[in-house]
C-alpha cells in the first residue's frame, strides 16, 4: 500500500488529484494492476472522501503522516517511511524531532540466561543515561529490554506488527499497558489489524528507522533480529552485537554480524554509552519556527484553499464559493490538507486552519 500511495502521488502530483482521476487515468499508474484498479474504483464509489476520512478518524484517533511536522524525522529519512504511522501512549516531541537519542534492542524470542542478563544491564544503562529504548514487544529479548528500561525510569517504544490496539503476544498485555504510560506503541497497520507472519519482518524496518543504532543481543542465523540489522545497515545506522560462544545456537547470528563488521558489545558499558552518545543528533529546532520550516510547498490548488481559509470555522459551501473550484476538487483538497495537519474539520462540515 505504501508503494502504491507513493506512485500515485508521483504520477498525479497530489493524492487529491489521484482521488478525482478517472479509471483510465488511474490505469496509467505503474504497478496498478487490473484487480487493484477495480477494487480502488469500487471502494472510491462507495464513500465520499469526507466520509472515508471521518470513518478512519473514528477508528484511528492518533496517527501521523509524512506531511506532519511531528512525524518522526529519522524515520522520514528512510527510503520507505510508512504513509501512516499510528500510535498510542505518551508522545515526547524531542524523540520525534531526533533530539533525544533512541536505540533499538532486538534478539531472539528464546534467549539464554546470558542474553537476558546483558539485555537487562544494557537497557537499564541506556535508560538511566537518557536514551529511549526501541523494540518490538515480542517475547524474549524485546520484552526484557522494554521492562528493564521502564524499571530504570526511562522511556520505551514498541513497534507492533498488529494494530496499536491489538496485543500480541497476549501474555504481554500487562507490559503493553505499562508501555502506554512510559512511552509509545506505534504501527503502520490500522486498528483491529490481527497478527500476520508477513507483518513482523516489515515492521523491523521501522525499528531500525526510528533508532540511531541497533543492538543485537542474541540471534540465530535465521531471525528477525538479523533483518532489523540489515535494515539498519541500509539506513546508515550503527550496528552492535553481543558476542557469544562459537557453539551457542542463539549467538550464531551475532557472530555473523561481528564477522561482517558490526561493533562488539563489550563488558565496559561506559565505552558503549560513549560511542552511542557520540552519534550526532539532529540540530534542535525552535518550537516557534519548526512548523514554518517543515511546511512543504503546496500545489496551486491546495494553496488556493489555504488562502481562502481563516482562523474561524468556515462552512464547506462558503469555501467552494470563495475558491470558485468544483465541490469535488475542494473536498479532495481539504482531505489532503487535513491529513497534512494544516486544516481541521469541525462538526457540520465546517473547516478552519489548524
Explain this structure.
The chain has 354 residues and is α/β, with parallel strands linked by helices. It contains 18 helices and twelve strands. The strands form two sheets. Strands 1-2-6-5-4-3-7-8-9 form a nine-stranded mixed β-sheet, with helices on both faces. Helix 13 links the parallel strand 8 and strand 9. The longest helix is centred in the middle third of the chain and has 16 residues. It starts with a helix and ends with a strand.
Give the helix proportion (percent range).
40-55%
Give the DSSP E fraction (strand runs of 2 or more residues): 5-15%
**What is the number of beta strands?**
12
Question: N- to C-terminal separation?
Answer: 28 Å
Please summarize the sheet with the most strands: 9 strands, mixed
**H/E element string?**
HHHHHEHEHEHEHEHEHEHEHEHHHEHHEE
Q: Overall mean pLDDT score?
A: 86
Task: Label the overall shape.
Answer: elongated
The class by helix and strand makeup works out as alpha/beta
Number of helices: 18
Low-confidence stretches: 283-295
Biggest β-sheet: strands ordered side by side in the sheet? 1-2-6-5-4-3-7-8-9
Kindly provide the radius of gyration, computed on alpha-carbon positions and rounded to a whole number of angstroms: 22 Å
Amino acid at each position: 500500500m505504501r508503494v502504491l500511495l507513493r506512485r500515485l502521488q508521483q504520477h498525479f502530483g497530489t493524492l487529491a488529484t489521484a482521488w478525482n482521476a478517472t479509471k483510465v487515468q488511474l490505469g496509467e499508474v505503474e504497478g496498478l494492476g487490473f484487480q487493484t484498479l477495480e477494487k480502488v474504483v469500487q471502494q472510491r464509489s462507495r464513500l465520499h472522501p469526507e466520509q472515508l476520512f471521518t470513518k478512519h478518524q473514528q477508528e484511528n484517533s492518533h496517527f501521523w503522516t509524512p506531511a506532519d511536522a511531528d512525524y518522526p524525522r529519522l524515520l522520514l529519512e528512510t527510503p520507505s517511511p510508512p504513509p501512516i504511522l499510528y500510535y498510542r501512549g505518551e508522545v515526547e516531541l524531542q524523540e520525534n524531532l531526533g533530539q533525544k537519542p533512541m536505540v533499538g534492542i532486538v534478539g531472539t524470542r528464546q534467549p539464554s540466561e546470558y542474553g537476558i542478563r546483558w539485555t537487562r544491564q544494557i537497557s537499564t544503562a541506556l535508560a538511566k543515561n537518557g536514551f529511549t529504548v526501541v523494540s518490538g514487544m515480542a517475547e524474549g529479548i524485546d520484552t526484557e529490554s522494554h521492562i528493564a528500561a521502564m524499571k530504570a525510569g526511562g522511556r520505551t517504544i514498541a513497534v507492533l506488527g498488529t494494530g496499536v490496539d491489538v496485543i500480541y503476544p497476549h501474555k504481554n498485555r500487562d507490559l503493553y499497558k505499562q508501555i502506554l504510560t512510559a512511552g509509545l506503541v506505534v504501527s503502520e497497520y490500522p486498528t483491529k489489524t490481527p497478527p500476520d507472519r508477513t507483518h513482523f519482518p516489515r515492521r523491523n524496518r521501522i525499528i531500525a528507522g526510528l533508532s540511531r543504532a541497533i543492538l543485537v543481543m542474541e540471534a540465530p542465523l535465521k531471525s528477525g533480529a538479523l533483518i532489523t540489522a540489515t535494515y539498519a545497515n541500509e539506513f546508515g545506522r550503527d550496528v552492535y552485537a553481543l558476542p557469544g560462544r562459537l557453539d551457542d545456537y542463539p549467538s550464531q547470528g551475532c557472530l555473523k554480524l561481528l564477522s561482517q563488521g558490526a561493533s562488539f558489545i563489550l563488558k565496559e558499558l561506559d565505552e558503549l554509552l560513549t560511542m552511542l552518545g557520540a552519534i550526532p543528533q539532529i540540530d534542535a529546532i525552535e518550537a516557534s519556527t519548526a512548523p514554518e520550516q517543515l511546511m512543504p510547498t503546496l500545489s496551486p490548488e491546495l494553496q488556493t484553499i489555504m488562502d481562502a481559509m481563516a482562523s474561524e470555522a468556515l462552512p464547506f459551501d462558503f469555501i467552494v464559493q470563495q475558491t470558485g473550484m468544483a465541490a469535488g476538487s475542494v473536498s479532495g483538497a481539504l482531505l489532503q490538507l487535513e491529513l497534512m495537519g494544516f486544516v481541521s474539520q469541525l462538526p457540520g462540515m465546517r473547516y478552519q486552519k489548524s
